[in-house]
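ok so dumb question maybe but i'm new to this and my supervisor (M.) told me to 'just get the structure for Methyl-accepting chemotaxis protein' and walked off. so i did the thing. is this what she meant?? sequence i used:
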Amino acid sequence: MEKALGDIQTLIKGMERGISQIVASSEEQASMVSAFTSVIERLQNSSQSMKDIADQMISYNFTK
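this is what came out, is it supposed to look like this??
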């Protein structure tokens, strides 16, 4: 009986370690998603800026 309880405690500790690893992994994934979202936003801003410049150049050529 004592050995069975010891085995159960060992299994529970192993599960706790596994859960901790899952939590850490989830936090890392959330951080990566946040960084990726930030990059996408900057790319969208750059794209809009480039479009605005192109529109200005086209408009300038038509007014010449």
